[in-house]
Design a protein that fits this description.
- By secondary structure, this protein is mostly helical.
- The chain is built from 15 helices and two strands.
- A two-stranded antiparallel ribbon has the order 1-2.
- The chain is elongated, with a radius of gyration of 29 Å.
- It starts with 7 loop residues before the first helix and ends with a helix.
- The relative contact order is 0.10.
């Protein structure tokens, strides 16, 4: 049986369908990229990118290493390769930290516009420039025999510090949000008004200290926000602590490499310098984290006081104690002071890692 001839109208219709199919092929949009981010391919793609970044940083450190005999001999040692890989892995880790923390900050603070982040990034950039200027002007210490080592290391350290911006921005946003809540919460516990004074159920009336707060406080919304802010700060704390710990380990690997090559001695590169590195960046992070942590606990405690005012007779009953304890447990205010300061112990985790890195470098030296 032969094929049927195609009429002009059928050919025209088929041509339109082909043109429509071609026209439907478009460039990927932001929504398409977001779907790719949530697809099963994203872990594989991100892993390949991170491995490529590690290789790129390693190649950067080795570039020009054959310019001088000292640089060539230093780059040929096993300890140099360990240090270069450790530093490259630290950069890749901070890229992951910036991506994870940045995504979390955007989810918690969707109302923050691009202008705010540009201003915050500008202030953060000035802080980085000041710190990098101080590090570049700091004298003393052993000379790294690697070609252009000072420029390369300062560039990578500056890049790592720049990748810490999402964490700092998240803490700044948290402080601003806590300040908004604090304006509508009493500074001292309120005293409930007796039912006889209101002709019905027990009401509440702000004390003179909190009389300026005229807006109603949505307690459920405020409590939900506080729980979300606590989770965000804990995530930032964990991520930054891991990042600083990785930097401390790479510094210990550098010390081991310099000692093994003879470019440094225990006198010119003492072990406590590795500890000082961890303490420096831990202290810088604590300057931003500690006020946020203290402010969060203060606002959470004031919210509990707002939800459960002091009874008129000053003798709270069992329902008052149970409700207050339940809300404090939800906000994790019922823990002991030592346990409550657990996040601060996380800030000092890099310093503990510094001690381990010093021990490893001492054994290797």
């Amino acid at each position: 049986m032969g094929s049927r001839p195609v009429s002009p109208a059928g050919a025209a219709g088929r041509g339109r369908r082909v043109r429509d199919a071609v026209a439907s092929v478009r460039r990927p949009t932001r929504d398409d990229l977001a779907r790719l981010h949530g697809s099963a391919w994203w872990p594989a793609v991100s892993t390949v990118v991170l491995v490529g970044l590690i290789v790129g940083v390693f190649v950067l450190l080795r570039t020009g290493s054959g310019r001088t005999a000292e640089s060539r001999a230093f780059a040929a040692t096993v300890e140099f390769h360990i240090w270069a890989l450790a530093l490259a892995a630290t950069v890749a880790l901070w890229v992951v930290i910036a991506a994870v923390v940045g995504q979390a900050v955007r989810r918690v603070f969707p109302d923050r516009g691009r202008g705010w982040f540009v201003g915050a990034a500008s202030c953060y950039g000035l802080l980085i420039l000041a710190l990098m200027g101080g590090l570049s002007l700091a004298g003393g210490g052993p000379v790294n025999p690697l070609h252009a080592a000072r420029v390369k290391v300062l560039f990578l350290v500056g890049l790592i510090m720049a990748l810490g911006f999402p964490a700092v921005a998240g803490l700044w946003c948290t402080q601003a949000r806590l300040g908004q809540f604090a304006r509508f919460l009493p500074l001292v516990p309120r005293v409930a008004v007796p039912a006889s004074a209101t002709g019905g159920d027990v009401a509440s009336e702000p004390t003179p200290t909190a009389a300026a707060a005229s807006a109603e406080v949505d307690r459920a919304h405020c409590a939900s926000q506080l729980v979300g802010l606590r989770r965000l700060t804990q995530r930032i704390l964990t991520a930054v602590s891991i990042g600083i710990s990785a930097g401390v380990v790479s510094t210990g690997a550098l010390r081991n490499a310099l000692l093994s090559s003879g470019a440094a001695t225990p006198e010119t590169f003492p072990s406590y310098w590795v500890l000082a590195y961890g303490a420096l960046f831990t202290g810088l992070f604590a300057i931003v984290f500690v006020p946020t942590f203290v402010e969060w606990r203060g606002v959470a405690a004031r919210l509990v006081d707002e939800a459960f005012p002091i009874p008129p007779d000053g003798i709270p009953g069992d329902p008052w104690h149970e409700g207050r304890a339940s809300m404090s447990k939800m906000l994790q205010l019922d823990v002991s002071p030592l346990r409550a300061l657990g996040p601060l112990a996380g800030v000092l985790a890099p310093v503990a890692t510094s001690l381990a890195a010093v021990f490893v470098s001492e054994v290797g030296g």
